[in-house]
Specification:
178 residues; alpha+beta; eight-stranded mixed beta sheet
Length: 178
């Protein structure tokens, strides 16, 4: 099983079959990955975002692009000390013709305030930027979520504009040629 890790976290990209399992039964997926079953708590907004991601992005794209699934899937974030899933992170797909894609993440509300979101973001960013195709990452955070905005700033993103609901950010790959 492929994964990447940081000091405290392991990030596991889910293939199509694993995503199907996650979409119907998280505990069964966690046991299949030899994880302890989590008691993850996700707010309603993020729960709706997850459902849309399964239907409109992760499942169809991991099925269409099995060799590039890491760019199209949800990565389980595992806290190594407890061997428990504490959230997910994802790219918005394989980088486009301009070398851009997005990144998004969520952390179990019980795990907020420990720096896990920043650590997971930096881990996946560093993995993605090893590929010369990835030149720029974009992300957004709700205006009423300053903690998520701080995560992006700590990960090196810069604010680019604000709309009625979100602050939008960008991070350029310093080693990429433009």
């Amino acid at each position: 099983m492929f994964f990447i890790e940081s000091e405290r976290l392991k990030l596991i990209p889910l293939n199509y079959t694993q995503l199907l399992l996650l979409s119907t039964n998280r505990p069964t997926l966690e046991r299949s990955l030899n994880l302890n079953v989590s008691a993850m708590h996700i707010d309603d907004y993020n729960e709706a975002e997850l459902k849309a991601a399964f239907k409109n992005h992760w499942l169809p794209n991991t099925q269409m692009h099995p060799d590039l699934y890491q760019w199209y899937t949800s990565w389980e974030i595992v806290l190594k000390s407890s061997n428990t899933s504490i959230g997910s992170i994802c790219f918005g797909g394989y980088p486009d013709d301009f070398g851009e894609t997005t990144i998004g993440y969520l952390i179990d509300q019980h795990q907020w305030g420990h720096g896990y979101a920043t650590e997971e973001a930096l881990t996946l960013i560093n993995w993605g930027f090893k590929f010369s195709i990835l030149k720029t990452l974009k992300a957004d955070a709700q205006l009423n979520n300053p903690a998520s905005q701080r995560v992006l700033l700590k990960a090196g993103f810069v604010p680019i504009h604000k709309d009625n609901t979100h602050q939008h950010f960008k991070l350029r790959n310093a080693s990429a040629s433009y």
